[in-house]
Design a protein that fits this description.
Elements (H helix, E strand, L loop, with lengths): L4 H11 L11 H26 L8 H16 L2 H18 L19 H14 L6 H6 L4 H4 L2 H19 L11 E4 L7 H14 L6 E6 L6 E4 L4 E5 H13 L3
Parallel strand pairs: 1-2, 2-4
Antiparallel strand pairs: 3-4
Helix pairs in contact: 1-10, 2-3, 2-4, 2-10, 3-4, 3-5, 4-5, 5-8
């Protein structure tokens, strides 16, 4: 399955740098970058909610955060927008996972994240399960095996109901104002500031929190994103945006 792509992908990254953050991107590349930034932001929000709401986690926390990202995409966005957002994350795994299996020996089995191949199928399954009739072509395109696809609607329903119990508790009622929420602390010149500012605005108009969670856009020295429990803060690394642009470039989007 898709063997051999990663080698050429990495060669492109080594041979040439990514476009500058301010450089014009194609519509497909822009949607890929923005979709992954939003999906990753929702993932980090999952860690934040687990912390500030003191939620029980039956299983790996990273899996729970991955699941919330799909639930928020389907709950907060219209159907067509939810699809391209979900596809962006699936495409990221498509482009960066070594489907030949050659990298299996290098998998960090001790890590807190599951193998990327498994995260790929979990993501596609939940996305497909949110609308199995409307997203039947997606299941085929992303090669979701029939034996897994058959249970995906139930998997998504369980995920939505499980997270929904806690999301309902913090959902603002008509006329209610948020007691605490997300606070974006970043210069307006930061990469994709407007994108994250809009996500923060929508969140604060939809949910309330027991304490504030700050959101930073900073250079981290690596392409990543973090939630810091000690500071109740999310950091979206500027290098992560650069990395996504590089992936889009290598994929010729």
């Amino acid at each position: 399955m898709r063997a051999g792509f990663v080698g050429s992908f990495l060669a492109v990254l080594v041979a040439g740098g990514s476009p500058a953050l301010g450089e014009e991107l194609s519509p497909d590349a822009q949607r890929f970058v923005e979709g992954n930034l939003i999906g990753t932001f929702y993932h980090e929000l999952g860690h934040a909610l687990i912390d500030v709401l003191q939620l029980p986690v039956l299983g790996q926390e990273e899996d729970a955060a991955d699941t919330l990202a799909v639930v928020l995409i389907t709950d907060l966005w219209e159907k067509d927008d939810a699809e391209w957002l979900g596809r962006a994350t699936a495409d990221y795994y498509y482009y960066t996972v070594d489907w030949s299996g050659a990298a299996a020996d290098e998998t960090a089995w001790w890590g807190v994240h599951g193998p990327d191949e498994q995260r790929y199928y979990n993501h596609v399954c939940l996305l497909y399960g949110s609308d199995p009739e409307g997203l039947a072509d997606l299941a085929t395109e992303y090669e979701l095996p029939e034996q897994r696809a058959a249970g995906c609607p139930e998997e998504f329903t369980l995920a939505q109901q499980s997270w929904g119990v806690f999301l309902d508790e913090i959902t603002l009622q008509p006329g209610q104002r948020a007691e605490h929420g997300l606070i974006l602390k970043a210069p307006k010149s930061a990469p994709y500031y407007d994108l994250l500012a809009e996500e923060v605005r929508v969140w604060n108009e939809t949910f309330t929190l027991p304490r504030d969670v700050t959101v930073h856009i900073d250079a981290c020295g690596e392409a990543n994103a973090y939630y810091y429990p000690a500071e109740s803060s999310i950091t979206m690394c500027s290098e992560y945006a650069e990395w996504l642009i590089a992936v889009a470039q290598a994929a010729e989007l």
